[in-house]
Amino acid sequence: MAPAVPPSRRKPITIGRSIPSSAIFRFRLFCWDERNHEGHHEVCDLIDLHSHTHFSDGTSSPEELIGDALAARLEALSITDHDTFEGYEAAVPIARAAGLKLIRGIELSTRYNGSSIHLLAYFIGQEPGQDFVSWLGQLQETRRDRNRRLIDKLRQYGVELTLEEVEQKGRSLTGRPHFARVMVEKGYVPDMETAFREYLDESARAYVERQDPQLSQSIERVRQAGGIPSLAHPVRIFRNDYGKVDALISEMIPHGLTAIEAFHSDHKPGDVSHYLEVAHRYGLAITGGSDFHGANKPRIQLGRGYAGNLAIPYQVLDDLMAAH
Description:
Layout: E1 34-35, E2 41-42, E3 46-48, H1 62-71, E4 74-79, H2 86-98, E5 101-112, E6 115-123, H3 130-156, H4 163-170, H5 176-185, H6 192-200, H7 215-224, E7 228-231, H8 242-252, E8 259-264, H9 269-282, E9 285-289, E10 300-301, E11 305-306, E12 312-313, H10 315-323
Parallel strand pairs: 3-4, 4-5, 7-8, 8-9
Antiparallel strand pairs: 1-2, 3-12, 5-6, 6-7, 10-11
């Protein structure tokens, strides 16, 4: 892996809060190649601030994930497993030995007026306190309760699973992808996409809602613990109704919302442009990542997103640390 370039030597890239609104449509959305006066290409350092290990709903071990980050020539990576830091903590010595900057992150499931909203949280140079860790324990218990109810609901539709066999797939944190994998293995569905579409997705017949905390409460918890809360993949919220999502962002700022995930594998160029403009409008920082899950989302590549639609510059992390 190429050695990290000090921030002062990185090619300046205007993003997020510093981009003039008049220039938003002239702004190149991602890290890009430019020809210098000698005709050579220059490429800025790349990062990925949204990834998952097998400690939540990914399939890669922390060691495999770090290996993938090195292969993708990333300079920084954040592990953002759902409701747990176990994957991050296992990866710390591996990343340190490899010279890869690793950011402690987490993804939280929250509710807002009955809708499911995901919140990313980053802890840069600061460990979350015991109060936050204890709160995560409570969230993990609500997940276990949901899983027990989901077993009962699936049984109503002739899908016989046991909690034990699903938890074998999910290690310390079992989620819907692990249910889907067992359903495929037992022949109830041909693939994981079908499992979600017919049984597990929020609009599917066997869906069971978790007792998630409110979005505003979760943002406040993250801020109190010294973290940076970022609204995850806003394109998935309210069917990407810009007006509704923008209003939600505005409402959450007084509670401490600090950033928006403008760069994501699901985001089309127009979505990226819109959420960069929203971040500028409200003075928010930018985050971005592939939402890598390994074999559970085989079309998504670490650091590159879907069909290579991501190339997130290190300047995003520099600005995030400055915001913190």
